[in-house]
Write a structure and sequence with these properties.
Strand 2 and strand 3 form a beta hairpin. The longest helix is centred in the first third of the chain and has 28 residues, at 2-29. The chain is α+β, with helices and mostly antiparallel strands. It folds into 2 domains: 32-177, OB fold (Dihydrolipoamide Acetyltransferase, E2P), CATH 2.40.50.90; 184-286, Nucleic acid-binding proteins (OB fold (Dihydrolipoamide Acetyltransferase, E2P), Beta Barrel). It has helices at 2-29, 95-106, 138-144, 160-172, and strands at 42-51, 54-60, 69-76, 79-80, 110-120, 126-132, 149-150, 186-187, 205-217, 221-226, 231-236, 254-263, 274-277, 284-286. It is built from 4 helices and 14 strands. Helix 3 runs parallel beside helix 4.
Length: 297
């Protein structure tokens, strides 16, 4: 009996040591700004991967008297992945790759869920940063593989520096979405209703490129205007605090902007036909003229 107990203890101790080594080794492969740290989180396990940035999870209640599990729909904050097909549009390139990567990363595992300041989006999904039981930041993993775009979501910016870094690494290596023709920037002068789907079709997440001509102002917003008059970029007054030193720094520069492109309703024939609202400077990259992809200077 004592021999069996000793063997069992030795086995458990060995497993614990290798588990700790695995966590330490993985932690060394991602920057410290991407680690979970000591922030509040809850434990969960996956029930279903819906797409590359949406999960259905079961929250494990940490109470000794109850093993009750709460089912929650979660949106991975800070990223946006390719969309699947619908009645009018085909599946976007790398949708299946992002879906498969997410499934492989969290399959049959418990993981940590860090809930952000504003807990839900307009669809009622819980906004969260996800970490595997070995400490891997899931959003960082998808971004670094070139399977997701970084989409800052103020004021929930806990890991924004991490996500920006991961996206930049993927851009420099021209991985997956960053080398695919569909995801290359649309030139501002080429914007028209044929290239931009209706907003409700969830296909208006785009990258557009243009040269900034001026910075305008309205009652509650600042507007980045371009030499081509077909589109403009709106920044709400409340979000100007994130743009340091100011949005004037973009005047005269050729930039690439990432976000949701929407039709702009105006009675004036000379007004831009489209606009993109952005909330954070990381949605802008100044153009590196040596490639077709923008990078920070």
């Amino acid at each position: 009996m004592s021999t069996i107990t000793a063997k069992t203890l030795l086995h458990n101790l060995t497993f614990l040591i290798f588990s700790c080594l695995n966590i330490s080794l993985y932690a060394a492969t991602q920057p410290s700004i991407c680690l979970l740290g000591k922030q509040s989180f809850f434990d969960a396990k996956v029930q279903k991967v819906i797409d590359g940035d949406t999960l259905l999870i079961k929250r494990i209640q940490p109470t000794p008297s109850s093993n009750k599990e709460e089912v929650i729909r979660v949106r991975l904050i800070g990223i946006n992945t390719p969309e699947r097909k619908n009645r009018q549009f085909p599946t976007q390139a790398y949708y299946h790759s992002a879906l498969r990567s997410l499934r492989e990363l969290i399959r049959k595992r418990h993981f940590k869920v860090k809930v952000v300041a504003r807990k839900k989006d307009r669809h009622g999904r819980l906004l969260a940063h996800i970490f595997t039981d070995s400490g891997q930041n899931v959003q960082y993993h998808l971004l670094k593989q070139g399977l997701a775009f970084n989409l800052p979501w103020p004021p929930n910016l806990s890991y924004q520096a991490c996500y920006r870094l991961a996206e930049t690494l993927a851009i420099k290596s021209r991985l997956k979405i960053w080398q695919h023709p569909y995801y290359q920037p649309i030139m501002m002068e080429d914007l028209d209703s044929a290239t931009i789907p209706a907003p409700k079709m969830n296909r208006n997440f785009r990258r557009i490129q243009g040269t900034v001509s001026s910075i305008g102002q309205s009652q509650n917003s600042r507007w980045i205007n371009f030499t081509s008059k077909k589109g403009s970029v709106r920044i709400a007054e409340d979000d100007l605090r994130y743009f340091k030193p100011s949005i004037q720094q973009f005047r005269g520069k050729t930039i690439i902007i990432t976000g949701y492109l929407l039709p702009k309703r105006s009675r004036s024939q000379s007004a831009p036909s489209f606009f993109m609202r952005i909330r954070h400077p990381h949605q802008i990259r100044t153009l590196n003229l040596q490639t077709t992809i923008g990078e920070d200077k």
